[in-house]
């Protein structure tokens, strides 16, 4: 087995649908093609959105399709002390700071500066609390996003770049509701689990520069990234649980795998799940 370590990290907001199955299969194929390890991490830090029992359903769906992790799955909800240690280090180094701003505060500050254009529905934080809370009680903790433009090469999308301070602003690491932000949790987990390659859906590519910034700040290595094609509905929208995507029916796992392989360009043959997966690994290598 090589030093390659990959992972599939679903959020248990419902069962896997056709789009998330593509990401699961791609991550498994890439690990197997590199003769590496494949892990599953349940990303359940956003507890209000999690559906009870969805984590077990996801694991059962994967197993039915022959996608079994090489190590026991981990749940982010049990890893809070690890995130706290990383956050405390960033605060101590002056790379993160408490923020007392509400969304209304941010909107007003942006409007006053004439820079109120939202980005994907989110307001670019203007840095109001960088130099103190100005009498406001602390609500969240943000990362100080100053620095050069982040450049990286995606294994599918090619050369990418983003100036995080301009495109996103100082982003949240610990939320006002007391929950850990995805950006911090995923970076800490990828490091502690020794992940060398992140294979995930293209909708998450925009997160990569923030995660690279955090990796640099924490002294972590940066994995290789590969973002897979999105599966879209009849209206051209990204297939997701939020848009009513239905759960994949693993009563016919071979059909599920073939459907997931199609957007990846995998046209493997096989009469059984095992045969199809073996052929798909060969196809992925080429």
Walk me through this protein's architecture.
The protein has two domains: 5-77 and 194-211 and 219-285, 3-Layer(aba) Sandwich (Rossmann fold); 80-182, Glutamyl-tRNA Synthetase, Domain 3 (Glutamyl-tRNA Synthetase, domain 3, Alpha-Beta Complex). Helix content is 35%, strand content 15%. It has nine helices and ten strands. The chain has a three-stranded parallel beta sheet with strand order 1-2-3. A three-stranded antiparallel beta sheet has the order 4-5-8. The longest helix is centred in the first third of the chain and has 16 residues, at 18-33. It is elongated, with a radius of gyration of 20 Å. The two termini are 19 Å apart. The model has no long low-confidence stretch (mean pLDDT 92).
Mean pLDDT: 92
The shape is elongated
Give helix % range. Answer: 25-40%
Main beta-sheet strand count, sense and barrel state: 3 strands, parallel
Q: At CATH's second level, what is the architecture of the largest domain?
A: 3-Layer(aba) Sandwich
Number of DSSP strands?
A: 10
Counted up, domains total 2
Ranges where pLDDT stays below 50 over 5 or more residues in a row are: none
